[in-house]
Design a protein that fits this description.
Nucleotidyltransferase, domain 5, DHBP synthase, 3 domains
């Protein structure tokens, strides 16, 4: 049975193909259109998935959309009516899009498939938004049974759910309803601290360790009623998302001493402290939800999905100090992952297909579910464009790249199938030496063209993770933060109150300074040979050469762009930045050998901390 899962029209549109219960392909539309967080109907992602599955004509058996559009539309109408006459501007902005596209989702699916020469199947399903999230969390997980928590901005009506998965069934047991939303609370602070909503939440999470949680009591007194049973209620008098185009309003500004930071304005102590405070409140609420989930379900394992599940700092603390023995997080935890969850919901929940789990291995294939390109395709691309290259043999590949990294060269790595979800995991990555004290600054300012406060993640050999971090289990999808081991830390780095913040940011804090954040933490990706053999071999070669079993891994893209998808995307990014080398499968390209474009390279974006 061939099932196509889809998500679209809010952010991170995506498609996923499940064949006989196996995940064949999954990809976000942004990777093909090059529009970050593209919300449009995922026609290109659908085309890729069908091609990867070898489908044509009438081979598709079911299509599943990740939420119920009509129910969502009713919620939007009821919300605008409730706040009328306020809210006219967002109403006039939203309704034309609904009238033009979103209400016609079934017809858009049928028309899109027809344009691809694919017959629309008789079975078209619409699970709820949080059923799709819950299915994406539990069905691919390694657990035979588990508690499920989904938390995001809002689906149809639900914003947070607690559920349970057993065998091939999921049940949602408890929910928090709109407009009370942990995701929207976090997004409100994201907006207020000067970052873009639905794009900058992870930036605020990275900013939080620079501040002190001095606003926690104020937030809990005025903005959110936090309850021990996992429920919470927002004081809507301080928020603007119901009746305006802004997340916060004048009352919010008065409470925190001024207007939101403009995106090009310097980051001040207020923003760092607000980020730290919102992160602390979010973690408290998540711990309450987790304790309630453990009590309601009696399970020892937990599955997470929804946009808030991408908060890897909270995930790490929940694993260390929470009520569950094990946690599994959907790598594409946001709306993109709803496409995968929808397809698996149809296979197991609607179709009744059995499911097996061994307690250790998930079904995500290392999240490498996107397009790949053969050596023949890449050589044709390079030759046609006259790009100089050197071809590496199988035996040369890992040692040659490891030697470049050890020499403090920055390498763009393009190999295997593209990753599913927001994290680059060694297939579309920029890699560098974590031992270099200068590498964080180099990568942020010369390669990624982004804010210098942003930390970088390590890829570490699975068998070496406990040698570097206070973590005793796999973290294959870079969704857990853990402390760097105490014996690897620099004994006495300067206090942030005694030096300029630019200097403080770049102080070495461990013997792997490029991946050690200011609070001695790191967002960890463990690598084993089964999931990504070539990337594992690179790490092993680097360890054999240097004695260090980890490297820096950041996504292969510039600021404001999606992760690269094709060899052409990779080459263009390579040439726009100050990367030293590019690896396209078996081919190694040196920047010094390439013909520079006539126009000047893209300028470095000024840093808010500068």
């Amino acid at each position: 049975m061939n099932i196509l899962g889809l998500s679209a029209y809010y952010h991170d549109s995506a498609a996923c193909l499940v064949q006989g219960g196996e995940i064949t392909a999954a990809a976000q539309e942004e990777r093909f259109t090059r529009k970050k967080h593209d919300h449009a109907f995922p026609a290109r992602a659908i085309r890729y998935c069908l091609a990867e599955g070898g489908l044509s004509g009438g081979d598709l058996d079911a299509v599943v959309f990740y939420e119920k559009p009509i129910t969502k539309f009713v919620r939007i109408l009821e919300t605008y009516f409730a706040v009328a006459p306020r809210g006219l501007r967002p109403f006039l902005q939203a309704i034309p899009l609904w009238a033009r596209e979103k209400l016609w989702t079934p017809y858009r699916i049928e028309r899109s498939l027809a344009e691809m020469g694919v017959h629309m199947p008789d079975r078209l399903y619409f699970p709820t938004h949080h059923q799709s999230h819950a299915a994406s969390a539990f069905f691919p997980s390694p657990f035979q049974s588990a508690a499920i928590v989904t938390t995001d901005g809002v689906g149809e009506w639900d914003t947070t759910t607690i559920g349970v998965g057993e065998g091939n069934r999921i049940r949602l047991l408890k929910e928090v309803g709109f407009p009370h939303s942990l995701g929207l609370l976090y997004s409100a602070f994201t907006y207020f601290t000067g970052f873009r909503v639905l794009n900058g939440e992870y930036k605020m999470m990275g900013l939080a360790p620079y501040g002190e949680p001095r606003y926690v009591d104020l937030i809990k007194e005025h903005l959110v009623d936090v309850r021990e049973d996992g429920s919470f209620r927002l004081n809507l008098r301080f928020f603007g998302y119901l009746d305006s185009l802004a997340m916060t309003n004048g009352r919010f500004e008065k409470l925190f001493g001024g207007r939101p930071r403009q995106r090009d304005a310097p980051i001040t102590q207020r923003e760092t402290d607000l980020a730290a405070s919102c992160q602390a409140v979010t973690e408290e609420i998540l711990f309450n939800i987790a304790r309630q989930a453990a009590e309601l379900t009696g399970k020892t394992d937990l599955c997470l999905a929804g946009g808030v599940a991408l908060n890897c700092v909270a995930n790490g603390k929940l694993l260390r100090d929470g009520p569950f023995e094990n946690i599994w997080i959907q790598p594409a935890a946001g709306d993109a992952g709803g496409a995968l969850g929808a397809a698996l919901f149809a296979w197991h929940q609607i179709g009744g297909a059995p499911r097996s789990a061994d307690g250790a291995t998930d079904r995500m294939k290392g999240a490498c579910l996107g397009p790949s390109f053969s050596d023949a395709e890449i050589e044709e691309f390079l030759t046609a464009n006259g790009y100089p290259y050197r071809r590496l043999s199988r035996d040369q590949w890992a040692p040659a790249i490891a030697e470049l990294i050890a020499a403090e060269k920055v390498v763009g790595l393009f190999q295997g199938r593209m990753e599913w979800g927001p994290r680059a995991l060694g297939s579309r990555s920029i890699v560098a030496d974590a031992r270099s004290p200068r590498m964080q600054s180099v990568l942020n300012l010369k390669i990624k063209h982004r804010e210098s406060f942003r930390p970088f993640a390590p890829s570490v050999l699975l068998e070496r993770v406990a040698d570097y971090f206070e973590l005793d289990r796999p973290s294959p999808y870079m969704l857990l933060v853990a402390p760097v081991r105490k014996d690897r830390r620099v004994p006495s780095p300067p206090d942030k109150g005694t030096v300029d913040i630019k200097e403080w940011v770049n102080c070495a804090r461990s013997d792997v300074p490029a991946i050690t954040h200011v609070d001695y933490s790191a967002r960890i990706q463990t690598v084993d040979r089964r999931a990504n053999p070539r990337y594992y071999d690179l790490l092993r070669a680097f360890e054999e050469r240097t004695g260090c079993g980890l490297i820096v891994n950041t996504s292969f893209n510039e600021r404001g762009e999606p992760i690269v998808c094709t060899p052409s995307d990779a080459y263009d990014c390579f040439m726009r930045t100050e990367m030293d080398y590019l690896v396209l499968e078996s081919f190694l390209l040196s920047k010094s050998d390439q013909q520079r474009p006539a126009e000047a390279p893209a300028g470095v974006v000024s840093d808010a901390l500068d």
